[in-house]
Amino acid sequence: MSIFEYNEEEEKRKLRKAEYEAGMAEGVMKTKKETAISLAEMGLSVQQIAQGVKVEEKTVREWLNEKTDVKK
């Protein structure tokens, strides 16, 4: 048996794990975005929001710009 032998079950397990982790990361960012928008509606500054949700100010500005673009 070769050390380079393909193991289908192992590859499927790795793929499921990677997909799970990507989904979790996406969910976390969605929650941060929703929280940032709520905090902006409460009157917090971009700097305060970025610090609170632990993302860059640039990202918060993008999220808030997306929100205002949808309203137009």
Automatic annotation (TrEMBL):
It comes from the Bacteria. This is Helix-turn-helix domain-containing protein.
